[in-house]
Design goal:
The protein is of the alpha+beta class and about 140 residues long. It is about 35% helix and about 40% strand. This is AraC family transcriptional regulator.
């Protein structure tokens, strides 16, 4: 990791530690933003991920979606635009170096607006590509 990324990661770790005194999901002053902390590894738990952006700052976690297993650790992230039935397990966490992460949940309206913006960007790119191809012939 570059020095700049390492510095920003340390800043986020400090923020999460400051605003999450104990284990669990901690709501912040920013709507739909949660800081996550766990001081020990966990057994697998089952639940539903809401549409969200999740990022791990310290420790590691495994997420199962059906039969597929995904491992997330430092600076890895997950983005979900729909509700996902998952099983999760924190696999790296100690009291000295707890699992730390953040989750930003999206409302259905926010998800729809993001998808529209992505489609617009892709559409503009395709038009640009087609025009460039046409004029280069």
């Amino acid at each position: 990791m570059t020095e700049k990324i390492t510095t920003k990661n340390q800043e986020l770790i400090s923020l999460i530690e400051r605003y999450s005194a104990g284990d669990g999901a901690h709501i912040t002053a920013i709507p739909n933003l949660y800081f996550l902390r766990r001081s020990n590894t966990s057994e697998p738990t089952h639940g539903v991920y809401k549409p969200s952006f999740c990022m791990i700052m310290q420790g590691a976690k495994e997420v199962w979606l059906g039969k597929d297993r995904f491992r997330y650790s430092l600076a890895d992230y997950l983005v979900s635009s729909v509700q996902l039935p998952v099983s999760t397990q924190v696999t790296e966490a100690t009291p000295a170096e707890p699992y730390l992460g953040l989750r930003l949940e999206f409302s259905p309206r926010q998800t729809r607006l993001m998808l529209i913006q992505i489609h617009l960007i892709v559409g503009v790119f395709c038009i640009h590509y087609l025009l460039s191809s046409y004029y280069l012939q």
